Amino acid sequence: MKFNLYSLVAAILLPSFAAAQLSGSVGPLTTRASKRSKVCNVLNYGGVASKTSDIGPPLASAFAACKTGGTVYVPPGDYGMSTWVTLDGGSAWALQLDGIIYRVGTAGGNMILVESTTDFELYSSTSKGAIQGYGYTFHAAGTYGPRLLRLQSVTDFSVHDIALVDSPAFHFTMDTCTNGEVYNMIIRGGNEGGLDGIDVWGTNIWVHDVEVTNKDECVTVKSPASHMLIEDIYCNWSGGCAIGSLGADTAISNIVYENVYTWESNQMFMIKSNGGSGSVNNCQFNNFIGHSNAYSLDINGYWSDESPAAGNGVLFENLSFNNWKGTCADGATRGPINVVCPSGAPCVDITISNFAMWTETGSYEYYKCENAWGSGGCLKSGGSSSYAIVTQTVTSAPSGYSAPTMPSDLASGFALTASIPIPAIPTTFYPGATPASTLLGG
Ligand SMILES: *[C@@H]1O[C@H](CO)[C@@H](O)[C@H](O)[C@H]1NC(C)=O
Ligand SMILES: *[C@@H]1O[C@H](CO)[C@@H](O)[C@H](O)[C@H]1NC(C)=O
């Protein structure tokens, strides 16, 4: 292992910080090895390694046989899928996806839904397992199809070492999940909205070392959520990471995003609501690097893509943004700081520090604040009432804005009319950072 200051500091600081941020241990309760004491190989349940076969029923049968302790095994090879599966219940089981599943069916819903289970692991032992959604066949016609993967009410789990490619709709959703770890994943979707990378809500989840390409959510937290640590995320031509969209009774707290690298996305980070109630509080957003994004730090309490929800506005309170560097596409059109809070619930205790973003176009940029209190940027201090938009013009590059790029940022998004190739899982997700776990097949 190469020794450098970063890894030394990371090795000393990250485990304790992760422990402080999360509310307990994450991941499955028993090992892959123990789950392999019983293996249910889909080939023994009617599975056929062919791109035009239907792995759905064999997967469901193998699951039924192994769901109370064992490994459902999809060996290396190509498999078609025309019947979607709901893998419900069970515990102490794994889905070892070493093969590649290609979408054949056209129904809506979720190709693979895992629900109400515990001590669960979805992984590829070769790091080459994937789901290929062939979303382009829908997108070329201007429509959407099924989502690839959904975990619902799953506890003590991990998902890692797989690629999710070209979903006809969302790629990976975690709905009301607890004690999870997601890592060493790549998600590559078409270049349009509605193809979310990872959407997550629940409690005590660590998402790290993930790359997303699409033109919508990169790794996004939805309500209700608490105690999440999301770090070493590479949004390689995406929509960018976000919290939202938020509506009535929002309950989000104790979320930390750090080491987030964003290239050619809609934003580096956005918190989005329109009306609504409840709050987002006690969150941190540290160590962000961005290049060529439309928005950078963007809090929008009047997000017009969302129809107004009941309530005076979601309260954003005690949020800190520290150490943001890089460049934005055009800081005069879309300033790198945009904090627009609801007049019925002005933001309070917002901290922006070590913020050094400069514009790639023109010679000045704006910060814009409205109904927003705290320190840094154009935030007003010492109050909590509503106020009209204030702008601050920045006419020279902030010192220290220069930030590294990733070795091979995407030069353009993926076409909506041609198949997207299945990529290898990368081994770095943030400049200079080494993933917390090595690839299983590395
Ligand atoms: C603000 O949030 C941080 C976590 O980001 C927490 O440690 C701190 O106690 C909170 N401050 C207040 C006043 O609640
Ligand atoms: C970003 O995506 C492009 C296109 O697939 C790929 O060539 C490049 O390697 C990715 N960047 C990194 C650092 O993985």
UniProtKB/TrEMBL annotation:
GO terms for molecular function: polygalacturonase activity; rhamnogalacturonan alpha-L-rhamnopyranosyl-(1->4)-alpha-D-galactopyranosyluronide lyase activity. GO terms for biological process: carbohydrate metabolic process; cell wall organization. It is found in: Secreted. Coiled coil: none annotated. Residues 1-20 form the signal peptide. Keywords: Cell wall biogenesis/degradation, Disulfide bond, Glycoprotein, Glycosidase, Hydrolase, Secreted, Signal. It holds the Pfam family Glyco_hydro_28. Belongs to the glycosyl hydrolase 28 family. This is Glycoside hydrolase family 28 protein. It comes from Oidiodendron maius (strain Zn).
